[in-house]
């Protein structure tokens, strides 16, 4: 009787472990591999030593040199996320993002922007959304985001992705280059090359720049080049390091040109370390929920089922044979003699 109960308990526990393993792998796991609604506010700081840049102070335009510091802040907009409807409901999250660039010698503001966009919770790519906007300091304007912006997909692959560039308001390809270890993490390096891009500048602002930097010019444009390199932790899709080699030239219709930006922005050591720490923690959580826990439960479940089956077979092997039963029933002990 006891062996029968043990067999049933082991078999039940084994099946339950297998069910939990399947649930973690196929139900809970996919839910973990997506952007949370309660994302913590994060900041990424990059610096550009000895940068050449344009600064406008009290209407005066001048070209200067100093170290620039860029701070990008990302935080969730829970109210706008809750208001999403249709295909976006449950599939997207709204982020509020802002950037400030200052010169480190005086802490004067050089440039700033703020923006709102909707991201796919799984791929982290921008989704079409009527509520997206961009404010570069003049006024809010409509913008159509696409591709990756501030994060890569969970399970990033060694392939080409599209990264949105705010200066040209378009997505351009970022090609996989190689793997590289940073802060003990394997990262995928991607590089995006933008050459001869045109930055949209309001007409009145463009005239101010031309009048100050290229007197006599009546029209022109801002030509933009950027080599953007991102190092991504592939399991989480988080940026570990970012470097941008930016160049902007004010080009007049006469052919005259003035460099208004020449800077190499790179994540600070502190930002790289904190990014790696967050990615490492998130990767461990993902691996536990999506791989190690299901695998462990599956192995445990199979072991318990196998043990239950083995006990069942042993219990079956102990049954008395029919011949022995017959012998016991007749009370005979040995061969039965035939009457003579």
From TrEMBL:
Pfam families in alphabetical order: PorA
Keywords: Membrane, Transmembrane, Transmembrane helix
Transmembrane segment boundaries: 291-313
Record region (Disordered): 321-340
InterPro entries in UniProt: PorA
Record's keyword annotation contains Membrane: yes
Protein name: DUF3068 domain-containing protein
Species: Phytohabitans suffuscus
High-level lineage: Bacteria, Bacillati, Actinomycetota, Actinomycetes, Micromonosporales
């Amino acid at each position: 009787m006891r062996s029968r109960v043990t067999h049933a308990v082991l078999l039940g526990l084994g099946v339950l472990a297998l069910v939990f393993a399947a649930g973690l792998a196929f139900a809970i796991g996919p839910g973990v591999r997506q952007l949370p609604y309660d994302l913590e506010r994060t900041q990424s700081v990059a610096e550009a030593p000895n940068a050449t840049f344009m600064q406008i102070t009290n209407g005066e335009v001048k070209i200067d040199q100093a170290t620039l510091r860029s701070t990008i802040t990302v935080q969730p907009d829970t109210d706008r996320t809750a208001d999403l409807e249709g295909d976006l409901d449950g599939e997207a999250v709204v982020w509020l993002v802002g950037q400030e660039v200052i010169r480190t010698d005086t802490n004067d503001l050089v440039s700033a922007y703020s923006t709102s966009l909707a991201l796919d919770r799984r791929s982290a790519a921008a989704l079409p959304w009527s509520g997206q906007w961009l404010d570069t300091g003049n006024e809010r304007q409509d913008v159509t985001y696409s591709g990756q912006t501030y994060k890569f997909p969970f399970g990033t692959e060694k392939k080409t992705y599209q990264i949105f560039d705010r200066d040209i308001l378009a997505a351009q390809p970022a090609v996989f280059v190689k793997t590289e270890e940073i802060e003990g993490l394997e990262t995928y390096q991607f590089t995006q090359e933008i050459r001869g891009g045109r930055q949209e500048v309001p007409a009145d602002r463009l005239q101010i720049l031309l009048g100050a930097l290229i007197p006599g010019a009546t029209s022109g444009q801002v030509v933009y080049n950027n080599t953007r390199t991102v190092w991504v932790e592939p399991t989480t899709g988080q940026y570990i390091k970012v470097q941008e080699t930016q160049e902007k030239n004010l080009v007049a219709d006469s052919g005259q040109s003035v460099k208004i930006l020449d800077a190499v922005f790179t994540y600070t050591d502190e930002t790289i370390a904190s990014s790696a720490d967050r990615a490492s923690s998130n990767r461990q959580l993902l691996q536990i929920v999506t791989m190690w826990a299901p695998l462990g439960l599956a192995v445990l479940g199979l072991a318990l089922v196998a043990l239950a089956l083995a006990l069942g077979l042993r219990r079956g092997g102990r049954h008395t044979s029919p011949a022995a039963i017959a012998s016991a029933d007749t009370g005979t002990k040995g061969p039965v003699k035939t009457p003579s």
